[in-house]
Amino acid sequence: MMTRYLNLFKFEMKNILKDSMTVVLLIYPLLIIGLGAFVLPVLLKRYGGDTPGTITAGLVMIVVFATVAPFITAALLGFGLLDNRDENTLDTIRVTPLSLKGYLIFKSVYAYVLSVNASFFSVMGTKWLSGDGYTIMGIDLFAEFTVGTVFIYALVGGLFTPVFGLFLAAVAKNKIEGFAYMKSAGMIVIVPALIVLETMQDAKQYLLGIIPIFWPVKGLLKMSIPDFLHNPADLPAWLYPLIGAAYMILLIGIAYRFFEKKVQH
Questions:
Q1: Per-residue pLDDT of the chain (265 residues; tens, 9 = 90+)
Q2: Which residue, among 140, 158, 119, 156, has the nearest Cα to 224 in the 3D structure?
Q3: What per-residue string of b and e applies to 30-67 under the rule 16 or more CB within 10 Å gives b?
Q4: Residue 140: how many CA atoms within 13 Å on its side-chain side?
């Protein structure tokens, strides 16, 4: 059984590496780390200075670093499934001992693992390599971002990968259309960053909760920079990732059924 899944993983990686679009998506977290660690801190200090507005801009960037990885790995999963549909691989798998359900679980799990690693290193890699690049007005924005809190975020945020990946593969007819949907859905990366704005820190923050990645992002910020995000409307920090995990597990089930219906027609 293990050999079967190992061979399947090798096959999946070959498919990813043979397509330039998916290769770019695979190395995207490295580009984010490089940009976040070496380019953006210089721009912040040169054009922002030591002001509260620069602190807000820095926090927005940190949120984007955290949300990009699950989004990109979701696109990888979605494009892989679209390839499978185009090549009629899913019809072949349906009659094998693995079954369509087993194959989708396998693809979702390995994409989730990629997402967890990419999410963790996108944030912590930026912290480790940026030095004091995110120290503004004497405050190091990354100071309380610990390995533990970021790993919790990555574990929960990674669940967004099968959610969006399965939905993307279900609604798009091919990879070109899938790429268009991905670009249109790019606001998913930006919208959670609104929680760092003062006007969105009261009960209005929960309007953002429709976007699944909001919950683990809010939990990460509450655990890491509580002094900046303190409002009577807030829940306990640990509750945000818990709600996010439950919400996204529910959405994974819905997305799976939606995709399964699409491939049966």
A1: 556 666 666 766 676 666 666 677 677 788 888 999 999 998 888 887 788 888 889 999 999 989 998 998 998 889 888 888 877 777 777 766 677 788 888 889 988 998 999 999 999 999 999 988 899 888 899 999 999 999 999 999 999 999 999 999 999 988 888 888 888 888 777 888 888 888 888 899 999 999 999 999 999 999 998 777 778 889 999 999 999 999 999 999 999 999 988 877 6
A2: 140
A3: eebbeebbeebbeebbeeeeeeeebbbbbbbbbbbbbb
A4: 12
Q: Which residue has the tokens 């976040």?
A: 36
Q: Token pair for residue 70?
A: 């699950």
Do 69 and 119 touch, CB atoms closer than 8 A? yes
Query: How many CB atoms are located within 10 Å of the residue 154 CB?
Result: 24
- Give me the number of domains the chain comprises: 1
Q: Which of 217, 54, 197 is nearest to 139 (CA)?
A: 54
How far apart (Å, rounded) are the C-alpha atoms in residues 72 and 185? 11
Range of the domain at 226: 2-263
